[in-house]
């Protein structure tokens, strides 16, 4: 774990720095290939800025709503620069709602916008998992395997690093290349990103040491991943066969 970085008299939160670096790398690299989705660099950056701002605000407010007593006692903590005080689910929902609103206003086709954002989102996932490794969050289950790391008084699976590796492979797989744009229907790159991310979560969640169980011994994250994978499969089939009627 590396929760903080000391730069002279400054003590900086390593997880936050990692996330900021991932956002910068993801946007700067994705901007260079946004033309594959038919979106200019300016409009891509505007879309990303709207979604990022709305997502951060939504994630913090969502976390505050779940911990209302703590924030009422210290309202200034709403402005704290702490990645641990964010609700990822709420942030994602608000970010995509804001993004859809912007695409309508800017007259950007939604499927093209999603394709443009997919590589940046994949890199952000890499940063998110590395930030978890730095903070010790989303830790692995105890293990005796050779790759175990010492964390919270146990030798554990390095699940954060495995998730970061999986996200990096997904980012490499969906990254636009010369001639690849014409081969994929609009929206399919984003659907592949969703499906691959859900599939990785299904397997790697087995190595996690946190998270709640639901019915049948499945974890909440696995249930969500199954739903996302099913939706991605259905959307992919629809995009690949646009003329096919449902059920045929």
Descriptive account of the structure:
The chain has helices at residues 14-33, 41-66, 68-73, 88-106, 110-135, 159-174, 188-204, 220-240, and strands at 4-7, 10-13, 149-151, 154-156. The chain is mainly α. Strands 1-2 form a two-stranded antiparallel sheet. Strands 3-4 form a two-stranded antiparallel ribbon. A hairpin with a 2-residue loop joins strand 3 and strand 4.
Range of strand content? 5-15%
What low-confidence regions span 5 or more consecutive residues with pLDDT below 50? Answer: none
Number of helices: 8
The ordered string of helix (H) and strand (E) elements is: EEHHHHHEEHHH
The largest pleated sheet is described as:
2 strands, antiparallel
- The tally of beta strands, per DSSP, is 4
Write the topology of this structure.
Elements: E1 4-7, E2 10-13, H1 14-33, H2 41-66, H3 68-73, H4 88-106, H5 110-135, E3 149-151, E4 154-156, H6 159-174, H7 188-204, H8 220-240
Antiparallel strand pairs: 1-2, 3-4
Helix pairs in contact: 1-5, 2-4, 5-6, 5-7, 6-7, 7-8
Entry keywords:
4 strands; globular; 248 residues; 61% helix; 8 helices; single chain; two-stranded antiparallel sheet
Quick structural summary:
With about 250 residues, this protein is mostly helical.
């Amino acid at each position: 774990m590396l929760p903080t970085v000391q730069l002279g008299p400054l003590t900086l939160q390593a997880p936050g720095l990692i996330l900021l670096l991932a956002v910068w790398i993801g946007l700067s690299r994705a901007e260079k290939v946004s033309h594959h989705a038919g979106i200019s660099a300016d409009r891509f950056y505007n879309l990303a800025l709207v979604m990022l701002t709305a997502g951060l605000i939504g994630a913090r407010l969502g976390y505050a709503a779940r911990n209302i007593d703590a924030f009422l006692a210290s309202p200034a903590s709403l402005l704290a620069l702490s990645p641990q005080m964010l609700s990822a689910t709420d942030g994602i929902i608000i970010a995509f709602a804001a993004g859809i609103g912007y695409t309508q206003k800017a007259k950007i086709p939604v499927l093209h916008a999603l394709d443009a954002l997919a590589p940046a989102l994949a890199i952000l996932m890499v940063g998110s998992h590395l930030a978890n490794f730095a903070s010790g969050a989303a830790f692995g289950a105890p293990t005796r395997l050779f790759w175990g790391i010492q964390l919270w008084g146990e030798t554990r699976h390095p699940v954060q690093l495995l998730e970061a590796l999986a996200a990096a492979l997904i980012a490499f797989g969906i990254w636009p290349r010369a001639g690849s744009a014409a081969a994929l229907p609009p929206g399919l790159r984003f659907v592949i990103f969703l499906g691959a991310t859900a599939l990785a979560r299904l397997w790697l969640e087995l190595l996690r040491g946190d998270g709640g169980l639901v019915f049948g011994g499945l974890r909440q994250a696995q249930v969500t991943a199954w739903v996302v994978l099913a939706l991605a499969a259905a959307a992919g089939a629809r995009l690949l066969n646009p003329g096919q009627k449902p059920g045929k």
